[in-house]
Amino acid sequence: MDKLPLHPSKHPKLTNRHSKRFFNLDTATKNLIPRPASDALEDHLGYAEYGVGHISQLVFDEAAVEAHRIASPDHKETLEVGNPANPKNQWLPEPRFPGFRAFYARFWDACNEVEAALRRALCDILAIESDTLCRMQSQRFGHISFLHYPQMVLQSASATATAPAGQEPRRLNAHTDYGGLTLVFQDHVGGLEVHDGAVFRPVAPKPGTIVVNVGDMLERQSNGRWKSALHQVVGPREETLGARSDKGKLVFDRYSIAYTGAVDPEVMIETLPGCDVPGKWRPSMADWDQEKPVTSYEWLTKRVAAEYHQG
């Protein structure tokens, strides 16, 4: 049996192997565990085939969501899995996909330990009790997204990072993450980009590393001290890949995994001690919760409903 070390990025081949094994299954097998055709948060589990689900950034009006979906579709398929103890998780039968469920339980625990260490470090930075953020996530109310981006055209060095939406092929539209901290595990292909306030910049894959995103909840809790990272996934650019230039060809399937930690469902997303003075950034949640604070459940429900809007 494979053994996963505490630090999950130390075994990228093991992690990616299970992801590729799943997405290489035939469509009928993957659709044995379909994500329900629902925008309910409780149904955000299972396999979403290519064309199901659509990311947008803080677009909630139904007509606007549908217009954005048509103009700028995502190019991905996903497998969504929650806390291993969640009875609504969907698992393929062991003979169809041997070893995955056991692997997932170990990987989930490892990601939780890494994220908890980061939460404690953030509390130390704020000079508040080191378990403040951990107490808010006692139920381990997060999930893991396994993502496969099928082949697409490689972007040239001349492709500008500020091209208008819809004029440059995107695998995943620009968005912020919904929760507290996200741990992103990239393969070697590249294509992840983060907005620095002016332009999108590539986040080059580096073996043995985890990309950590601040999400909407933590941005709101820190009162804009820490920025919820606006990011997207595009075809990898020549400046990211160096000499490996296949410009104009359909190349490079991309696989990535995102672990997203979230505050417990009933907890209000409010300003943390030590963050009373507004930071540099205006929280993404500000427009929606200006009348009253919202719970983690309310915010996640709103974001997931927009992503899986049934047009």
UniProtKB/TrEMBL annotation:
SUPFAM superfamilies: Clavaminate synthase-like
Keyword Electron transport attached: no
Keyword field: Iron, Metal-binding, Oxidoreductase
One Pfam assignment: 2OG-FeII_Oxy
GO molecular function: metal ion binding; oxidoreductase activity
Fe2OG dioxygenase domain ranges (all copies): 140-265
Lineage top rank: taxon: Eukaryota
InterPro entries in the cross-refs: IPNS-like_FE2OG_OXY (IPR044861), IPNS-like_sf (IPR027443), Iron_ascorbate_oxido_reductase (IPR050231), Oxoglu/Fe-dep_dioxygenase_dom (IPR005123)
Signal peptide stretch: none
Family: Belongs to the iron/ascorbate-dependent oxidoreductase family.
Identification of the protein by name: Clavaminate synthase-like protein
Organism: Aspergillus uvarum CBS 121591
Organism phylogeny: Eukaryota, Fungi, Dikarya, Ascomycota, Pezizomycotina
